[in-house]
Amino acid sequence: MSDNTWQQILFTELKRLNITYKSQQLQYLTLSIDATDWSKISNVLRGLEARFSGVWGDVLRTNIDVYALFSLEQHYLLVKTNLPEPPFSLPSISTCYPAANRMERHMRDLLGVELQDSPDDRRWTRHQAWKDKEYPLHENFPIKRTSYKKTDGDCKYPFFQTQGSSVCEVPVGPIHAGIIEPGHFRFQVIGETVLNLEQRFGYTHKGIEKIAIGKTPAQLLKLAARVSGDSSVANTWCAAMAIETASNVKVPERAIYLRAILLERERIANHIGDIGGICNDVGFAFAHHQTARLRELWQRTNAQIFNHRLLMDTIVIGGVANDINPDQIQSLLQELDTISRDFDQFIDIIQDYPSLEDRLATTGFLPHGTAKALGCLGYVGRASGIDVDVRRNNSYPPYDKYKVQHVLHSDGDVLSRLQVRVEETRSSFKLLSALLHGLASGDIVNSKITLLPNSQALGIVAAWRGEMLAFIRLDDRGNIARYYPRDPSWLNWPALEALIDDNIIADFPVCNKSVNGSYSGVDL
Amino acid sequence: MFSVLKKITKIGIISEKIIQLTPQDEDFKQLGLALKTQISKHFSGSVAIRAVDSGSCNGCELEIHAINNAFYNAEQYGIHFVASPRHADILLVTGTVSKHMEEALLRAYQAMPDPKWVIAVGECGINGGIFGENYATLGGVSKVLPVDLHISGCPPTPTQLLQGILTLLSQAK
User: Fold this and answer.
1) Which domain holds residue B135?
2) CA nearest B50 in A: which residue?
């Protein structure tokens, strides 16, 4: 479809349904609509097979802007509405886009936008740290409480109930057996078979969106690096991209290359770790030890050359923090050669194990239809035939200069998600080599930066988990007025609830690892 | 099977001693040596750690994972991680302590048998780090638990983590 056909089809459809809109070609095509048409437009978009990407609110002094981002024929489309006065209320779009549900509930808990006709409007991010009808992102909500009172556990959360003589309930978490982030999983099982899984998160809610307000852009990047420790580069790049786009800051080409090198290094480290983790969860410890070894070598190079094992604080507004010299480029290329060869050998070994394949194949099956309805991203989507990779579909520099390999599987099981990671790691090795060879010369940071007050923009980056967004609005002094990071895990976590059905509960760890969502990234 | 054995034999033992990791640090040379006696005397040869994330960004968890990899091999000192707080001597707490985790953290601590120790990990564990104290966070582990040792860093490196754990053990009586 050509660039404008999809817009014409959309506009014709909106006209037919008498939906009035104001269209602007800003960063992306932006439609401003009336709040009453909010769910109607999402119905139209659903009919046109648009992909839902995120919904969030922005509190202006006394009113609230609400945004929803969609992708139609691989073009982004931003839909916006304004809620002029309290009580703030909006028709829910989660009937046609189920993945919007948790984001809507998050928006209600933090901003007070009530949802009309929502299939599920229980609290999500809020537990007991603040009361119902109090909204942390409102101006009059204090950032810090003056007196300390112990916060009780959220014991009375109304979980879905299943009844029947042989149904048994298994609560797991928030503290899990391993060294991982906290979250609660509520299983209903019959014998060993999982009948239903319900997730309950919000345990690591740290008030990120509230404390972001008033920070300088440089301070914000430090915070963005710590939204989710395993996606540090992606979150920082995303936030930097939003601020730079809003203020028309040009980033030197060398810095753009270095950012991509950092992002690919982050992708490889996490994928390698996950491959071992998946094998370990079915008792194949050899794989776990090998990948942990590779990951450690990789992270030691990170520390040596980029000064941080997890690459935190390597990206700054207008560029990157550190340059690399020709010797370092050589040693990075050399390392790439050894590690990729070691990785290939290792993969040959694990692919030669029928018992491993037997455990992973058909386990945790996510059908294409479900993945599409949930809008799954990254390796979760790509293992179920959902072809979304921001580096290819909505390419941005420097990826627009390279052909990012097309990794797509359709089996939708744990094995496919493992396979997608293997192929993506290999593709990132190649990309990394190309980026290091093609590294442009010049500055690593734009030294003449003027921030545009009262501007706003989106940053969209291909994180290792999939498409990542950041919405940023600057205030009249060029500081942060609103920061909303949307981790890809928002759209991948619900897939775990779906794919665990009919599996045995003992396979939950491996299914969970194959999705590996971020807790911190969604709890915020 | 043969390929696995070949790979294992070829790589050999890659575990490093704390002395190798911190050659510049005289104190730790001593510590590495003194430790074995300490652990066998007070902890019957092994010390059990329960790690709890009380609202970290996951950075600290990744580095705690790393001390179990073949290079750092925490088990060589008799340090091992357990699934239940009831089996633990040390509670290794990461994160700023979010209010939503306060109750769970307290219960984990209460479930531990005496004697017990608490280590707060990372800048967040010390004072809340970049998240500080706000409506959703308490701003540091010592706000709710008696902390015996702080390990700084954002996140602390595996070497710093090991140094911290070893320091605590050498002080434990």
Assistant:
1) 2-171
2) A179
Whole-number pLDDT of residue A505: 93
Q: Which residues of B touch A128 (CB under 8 A)?
A: 99-100
- Which of A:298-357 have CB within 8 Å of B? 299, 303, 309-310, 312, 345-346, 348-349, 352
**pLDDT digits 0-9 by tens, B136-160:** 999 999 999 999 999 999 999 998 9
CA-only gyration radius of chain A, Å: 23
Distances (CA, A) of A446 to A234, A471, B106: 20, 22, 48
pLDDT digits (tens, 9 = 90+) for A88-125: 999 999 999 999 999 999 999 999 999 999 999 999 99
Render pLDDT for A214-244 as a digit per residue (tens, 0 to 9): 999 999 999 999 999 999 999 999 999 999 9
pLDDT of residue A374: 94
What amino acid is encoded at A83 in this protein?
A: L
B68-81 confidence digits (pLDDT tens): 999 888 888 888 89
Distance separating alpha carbons of residues A511 and A495, to the nearest angstrom: 10
Q: Which CATH number does the domain housing residue B50 bear?
A: 3.40.50.12280
Identify the three-state secondary structure at position A170.
Answer: strand
Pick the CATH number of A5-116 from 3.40.50.300, 3.30.460.80, 3.40.47.10, 3.30.710.10: 3.30.460.80
* Chain region(s) in chain A for CATH 1.10.645.10: 208-523
DSSP A141: S
Mean pLDDT lowest among A62-66, A286-290, A401-405: A401-405
Closest CA to A200 of A127, A93, A95, A132: A127
Candidate from B14, B62, B84 with C-beta closest to A229 = B62
Structure-model confidence comparison of residues B37 and B72, the more confident one: B72
- Give the integer Cα–Cα distance in Å for A216 and A219: 5
Q: Which residues are CB-contacts of A330 (< 8 A; sequence separation ≥ 6)?
A: none
d(CA B58, CA A243): 25
Q: Cα–Cα distance between A135 and A438 in angstroms, integer? A: 49
The per-residue pLDDT for range A443-467, each reduced to its tens digit, is 999 988 899 999 999 999 999 999 9
Strands A466-474 and A480-486: antiparallel
The span from the CA of A81 to the CA of A30, in Å, is 10
Q: Which residues of A touch B57 (CB under 8 A)?
A: 226-229, 520
Looking at domain A208-523, does it have CATH number 1.10.645.10?
yes
Chain B, 24 to 83: residues with Cβ < 8 Å from chain A are 51-66, 68-71, 81, 83
Q: Are strands B149-151 and B117-121 parallel, antiparallel or unpaired?
A: parallel
DSSP designation for A400 = G
Three-state DSSP state, A483: strand
Q: Structurally, how many domains does chain B consist of?
A: 1
Considering only alpha carbons, which residue of chain A is nearest residue B100?
A203
pLDDT at B112: 95
| Partner-chain contact B101 A174, CB within 8 Å | yes
Residues of chain A with CATH 3.30.460.80: 5-116
Chain B residues touching residue A349 (CB < 8 angstroms): 3-4, 7
Residue of chain A minimizing CA distance to B54? A204
Bond before A398 cis per omega within 30 degrees:
yes
Confidence (pLDDT) at B33: 60
